[in-house]
Amino acid sequence: MKKLIVSGLVILGVLVSGFGFHYANAAGNVGDTSFTFVFGESEHTASREKLDSTSAYIRASSIGGGSYITSWVALNNGTDISRGNHYQVPKNKDVFMKNWAYEEYGKHVLIRLEGRKIAGTSTFAASGVWSPDSVGGP
């Protein structure tokens, strides 16, 4: 009986420490940085380091002349690293964007967000906040 209890405690300890490691591994670069897209002039954010495998995060607080924009994750040089996952970003909604920068290039890779207005709209600018890593979302 004593062996069974000790074995159970060892298994429980391994499980708990595994969860702690997973959480620590997901603690990334989550601080918000402001962005402004001016369509036709500046259509990407400044680059930031990606520190974990979580989704990037964007929240547009202002969209001038439209109801949403399209955004995706790119490497520092503009290479799309989202595998075709481009997202509609409406005003005042958290959007979590899948990407494979960390998985393919490792910790500390520089990423940025690209933005485009929706074709046929009069959207001229958008602004808000973003982070390369997130604490929620997919």
Provide the residue-averaged pLDDT: 84
**CATH topology (level 3) name:** Jelly Rolls
Number of helices: 2
Helix content: 10-25%
State the distance separating the first and last CA atoms.
43 Å
In total, the number of strands is 8
Global geometry: globular
CATH architecture: Sandwich
When the domains are counted, the total is 1
Strand content: 35-45%
The biggest sheet, with number of strands, parallel, antiparallel or mixed sense and barrel status, is: 4 strands, antiparallel
Uncertain residue ranges: 4-25
SSE string, helix = H, strand = E?
A: HEEEEEEHEE
Return the structural class. alpha+beta
CATH class assignment: Mainly Beta
Order the strands across the largest sheet as they lie in space.
1-8-3-6
Cα gyration radius (Å)? 19 Å
Give a structural overview.
- It contains 2 helices and 8 strands, in the order αββββββαββ.
- It has a single domain (3-131), classed as Jelly Rolls (Sandwich).
- The strands form 2 sheets. It has a 4-stranded antiparallel sheet with strand order 1-8-3-6, with no helix packed on it.
- With 138 residues, it is of the alpha+beta class.
- The chain is globular, with a radius of gyration of 19 Å.
Short description:
The protein is of the alpha+beta class and 138 residues long.
Key phrases:
single chain; 138 residues; alpha+beta; Jelly Rolls; four-stranded antiparallel β-sheet; 8 strands
Q: In terms of topology, how is this protein built?
A:
Layout: H1 2-25, E1 33-38, E2 48-50, E3 56-64, E4 68-75, E5 87-90, E6 95-97, H2 101-105, E7 109-117, E8 125-131
Antiparallel strand pairs: 1-8, 2-7, 3-6, 3-8, 4-5, 4-7
